[in-house]
Write a structure and sequence with these properties.
Mean pLDDT of chain B: 90
Low-confidence stretches of chain A: none
Shape of chain B: globular
CATH superfamily of the largest domain in chain B: ACT domain
Strand order of the largest sheet of chain A: 4-3-5-6-7-8-9-14-13
Strand content of chain A: 15-25%
Largest sheet of chain B: 7 strands, antiparallel
Number of strands of chain B: 7
Distance between the termini of chain B: 20 Å
CATH topology of the largest domain in chain A: Rossmann fold
Largest sheet of chain A: 9 strands, mixed
Number of helices of chain A: 10
Low-confidence stretches of chain B: none
Structural class of chain B: alpha+beta
Oligomer: heterodimer
Helix content of chain B: 25-40%
CATH architecture of the largest domain in chain A: 3-Layer(aba) Sandwich
Shape of chain A: globular
Chain lengths: ~450, ~150
């Protein structure tokens, strides 16, 4: 293969297992998982209710006979009600940030950690990471799975790590300029933040040595990829994972960048209609529902991720056989239903990136003062786009409004605000304030 | 002949305009004249100050979005028909006015208007050909500060 932008190297031979071997391996591991979750009271009950046991699993598709697991189920068994191993077998705990106050804890055995590092190494190498690289990890190191997860993956590959962690953006820029790492790992919104601060300090792509970046932890768009790639002079790769399942490492892009290869030898991924819970036709968007196949400490059956994406099982020219998932286009619970129209915050971002004078920093405010929903989008103005002429400013506003309408089909109120005034975060950005009393779907 | 005007982006929220004016006051900058163009969602504050570079610096340091533009300060007879005659000259010259606003000080029966033209150099030539006074910064601020 000579038409890749860099050598298409495969980290783990399991990434290229023939499809029939992979399906057989999935069936075998699914059977083991169902046997393993018998130690979890929640699953013991749920399996008994359905009259299903490990012996009923013959093929991978038998997953459809198994019960679902939701975030709410995990919350109700707070903190560690889903453990399938004795507590003394654990070597690590992580947690996902809880908007409701308490995190959802996840746990790992030594075997789980080893597996996790290998899964991260797969997508890192697929996206250009090599042993000789230096990597700046600007993910939070803590309960959040991003920092430690990627750290172990990079370590396994043998590259050197600057564990910068998230935050202190001027220092991130200093590290990029002084130590000249080739690879950056963080959330895409934080990469934009870093690029912004670098530019304010007078640094451009030529002042840093970055070649690759691996982004995950939040939703982003193709336009945002182009913007970051331009700003930092890099190739940016998308990866996917969620802490309940393992953290980063469920899937990631290869050099062909035509979707993220799922590590299907470890995860069985279904794409379902969130209302009927029936599979959607391949290529159509649905909710990803994931069953872990090798997790020891906290295996989950049919976990409803609430992430919306599409699957593509067509062969990839990189040689990996894992089904590819599209980028996550929305979350079933982030989806705003405004005047009957489904809108994802990522669509607003996509629209803003098409307008020169706007920045992708925005805040969506939804109110219902009367019977109708009202949406206001606050957008940071790009300083160069400011004009002393009202007609030019009005034109800019109209253009933003038109792009948002093109992407979402909604007319929204627009408010231009000064640059750097909307909240920035080192992790996931606050994009929506919904003040409606009885929100549909919420 | 051209005067530097600074324009500031004003957000539509209480206190935003006052904060900019206060910042200038604290830096000892006197506003000679100003105009505010506004919509429901935002405004554009245009200012004429003697030390425009300092004013720009003060506002930018406070995180404001600032732009400088060249404008002309044009003398007009302070009597009925004075401005009408000036505008007729401008129209006759085919010069495009983007916006204009009044200068606050009169001098010997003459008022001053601030004009933003699409092409300030063409405007200067056309006005001077008709004997209309275009003030430079020295003249302008001398009037303002007596």
């Amino acid at each position: 293969m000579t038409d890749f932008p860099f050598e298409n190297r495969i980290w783990d031979p399991a990434e290229t297992l023939a499809r029939d071997e992979l399906r057989a391996l999935q069936a075998e591991r699914l059977r083991e998982t169902v046997a393993r979750v018998a130690h979890v009271p929640f699953y013991r009950r749920a399996l008994a209710e359905r009259g299903v046991g490990a012996d009923d699993i013959r093929i991978a598709d038998d997953v459809r006979r198994l019960p679902f697991t939701t975030k709410e189920d995990l919350r109700q068994h707070y903190p560690l009600g889903f453990l399938a191993v004795p507590r003394e077998e654990l070597v690590r705990l992580h947690g996902s940030s809880g908007t409701t106050g308490k995190p959802t804890f996840v746990a790992y055995t030594a075997e789980d950690l080893e597996c996790w590092a290998n899964l991260c190494a797969r997508f890192l190498v697929a996206g250009g990471l090599r042993r000789e690289h230096m990597v700046q990890i600007a993910f939070g190191y803590g309960l959040f799975t991003g920092g430690f997860g990627l750290h172990q993956g990079v370590e396994l590959v043998g590259a050197s790590i600057i564990p910068a962690a998230s935050g202190n953006t001027p220092r991130q820029v200093m590290l990029l300029v002084d130590l000249r790492p080739e690879v950056l790992i963080c959330t895409p919104s934080y990469a934009l933040n870093i690029a912004e601060v670098a530019r304010a300090k007078g640094y451009g792509p030529d002042d840093i040595a970055l070649q690759f970046a691996h982004f995950g932890g939040e939703m982003w768009t193709e336009d945002m990829r182009h913007e970051i790639e331009r700003a930092l002079g890099i190739q940016a790769f998308n990866n996917y994972g969620l802490s309940e399942i393992i953290g980063p490492g469920v899937s990631g892009e290869c050099a062909a960048r035509g979707g993220m290869h799922i590590s299907e030898d470890h995860f069985l991924v279904e794409c379902l209609d969130p209302d009927t819970l029936e599979p959607v036709p391949e290529g159509e968007q649905g909710e990803l529902v994931i069953t872990t196949l090798t997790k020891q400490a906290m295996p989950l059956l049919r976990y409803r991720t609430r992430d919306i994406a599409a699957l593509d099982s067509a062969p990839c020219r990189c040689g990996r056989t894992g089904t590819r998932m599209s980028r996550v286009v929305g979350r079933t619970d982030d989806m705003l239903i405004i005047r009957g129209v489904n809108v994802f915050p990522s669509q607003i971002e996509e629209a803003l990136l098409r307008v020169d004078g706007a920045t992708p920093h925005y805040l969506i405010e939804v109110d219902r003062p009367g019977a109708m929903d009202e949406v206001k989008v606050k957008v940071e103005l790009r300083p160069e786009a400011f004009s002393d002429r009202m007609d030019e400013m009005q034109r800019l506003r109209d253009r933003i409004g038109r792009e948002i309408f093109t992407v979402t089909g909604l007319r929204v109120g627009l408010e231009l605000v000064e640059p750097q005034t909307l909240e920035r975060s080192a992790g996931k950005a606050l994009r929506v304030i919904d003040r409606r009393q009885n929100r549909p779907g919420g | 002949m051209k005067i530097q005007q600074i324009s500031v982006f004003i957000e539509n929220r209480p206190g935003h305009l006052a904060a900019q004016i206060r910042a200038l006051a604290e830096a000892g900058i006197n506003i000679v004249t100003l105009s505010l163009a506004d919509t429901e969602q935002f405004g554009i504050l245009r200012l004429i100050v003697r030390d425009w570079e300092k004013a720009k610096g003060v506002l930018e340091a406070a995180g404001r979005v600032v732009k400088t533009t060249e404008v002309l300060a044009i003398e007009v007879e302070d009597r009925p028909g004075g401005l009408a005659e000036l505008l007729e000259v401008i129209d006759a010259g085919g010069i495009n006015v983007e916006y204009m606003y009044a200068f606050t000080y009169g001098f010997k029966g003459r008022a001053v208007m601030i004009f933003r033209f699409e092409d300030p150099d063409a405007a200067i030539a056309a006005l001077q050909a008709k004997g209309i006074g275009v003030l430079d910064a020295v003249d302008l601020f001398r009037r303002a500060e007596g």
